[in-house]
């Protein structure tokens, strides 16, 4: 899997097509998608065009990840969810297909807002259905996203194919060392989402700490190397090592997020300072600290527990 991918979440209609094309023209070869982003068709249009125009020689030159949404967790719906993503993206196979969250919604529900919209599908059953996608040649690798160690262990206990990847939020304020090390020691590749602190995420407003990109330590390191805080945060991720999938629809940033990030050499002093920024818990985690539907027994149907 190429270590730098192009993130596509929250890209507005119209922007994600142009952004994806630009990213591939600038040398990105990994696209991070999901059924629930509702923009796979636009990304698929960009993929089709870059191949037709010769920017890349063939589909095989790209690594395309998509994710199974929670309304498709029932075993009889897993294949349907996957095929829908593949059709939208216009591809005959996916390089990586992830279970987006370890939680199921009832069929047809995009976002559960009440407990009765939660579905009782064990992640083990969904995983077994995902393994069949590999057997059928629809996907090359399968993995998970937003899984904690306990959930990884549940899947590992029944899996006949390796968990290729766990994609989760991690950045200097939310380093998740135990989870990271567990993945490393079990051969599970880590992809970081929200590497720049999830500033664009709607959940940002529930947190009291200032944006990670405004952190003075990160700013000082960026100034020392003559680059931006965003580039420092991404370079830290790569160095850890993890795959990173920055989202941007701005051509200059799309370029910086690859070229400047690859060029930046963080030194031991930088790494020690960044290691000291970890603040696990609600203050450090912007994206999914306890998404209402993550803990079924604590289901509130709203976001009030974000206030701590
Ligand atoms: N598995 C999951 O549950 C999950 C959850 C969240 C995200 N993801 C994936 O991870 C990807 C990245 O995460 P993310 O979208 O939350 O956030 P992100 O990549 O950390 O940040 C995106 C935001 O930062 C801005 N930005 C990007 N590069 C910049 C730069 N060099 N300088 C200044 N600003 C910059 C973007 O603005 P512009 O676009 O306006 O340039 C956008 O507002 C997503 O797109 C998605 O593919 C997965």
CATH architecture: Alpha-Beta Barrel
Write down the domain tally.
1
Indicate the percent of residues in helices: 25-40%
Task: List unreliable stretches of 5+ residues.
Answer: 296-308
Annotation, overall tally of beta strands: 10
N/C terminus separation: 37 Å
Mean pLDDT: 90
Q: For this structure, what is the CATH homologous superfamily? A: NADP-dependent oxidoreductase domain
Which CATH top level class fits?
Alpha Beta
Query: Approximately what portion of the residues adopt beta-strand conformation?
Result: 5-15%
Describe this structure in words.
Helix content is 37%, strand content 13%. It is α/β, with parallel strands linked by helices and 308 residues long. The protein has one domain: NADP-dependent oxidoreductase domain (TIM Barrel, Alpha-Beta Barrel). It has an 8-stranded parallel beta sheet. It is globular, with a radius of gyration of 19 Å. Residues 7-10, 32, 100, 145-146, 167, 193-196, 198-201, 228, 230, 245-250, 253, 256-257, 287 line the site of NADP nicotinamide-adenine-dinucleotide phosphate. This is NADP-dependent oxidoreductase domain-containing protein.
Provide tags for this entry.
alpha/beta, oxidoreductase activity, acting on the CH-OH group of donors, NAD or NADP as acceptor, AKR, oxidoreductase, binds NADP nicotinamide-adenine-dinucleotide phosphate, two-stranded antiparallel sheet, disordered C terminus, 308 residues
Note the topology.
Elements: E1 6-7, H1 15-25, E2 30-32, H2 40-52, E3 63-68, H3 75-89, E4 94-99, E5 104-105, E6 118-119, H4 123-135, E7 139-145, H5 149-158, E8 165-169, H6 177-185, E9 189-193, H7 216-225, H8 229-239, E10 243-244, H9 251-263, H10 268-275
Parallel strand pairs: 1-2, 2-3, 3-4, 4-7, 7-8, 8-9, 9-10
Antiparallel strand pairs: 5-6
Helix pairs in contact: 1-2, 2-3, 3-4, 4-5, 7-8, 8-9
The structure holds NADP nicotinamide-adenine-dinucleotide phosphate (NAP).
NADP nicotinamide-adenine-dinucleotide phosphate (NAP) binds next to helix 9.
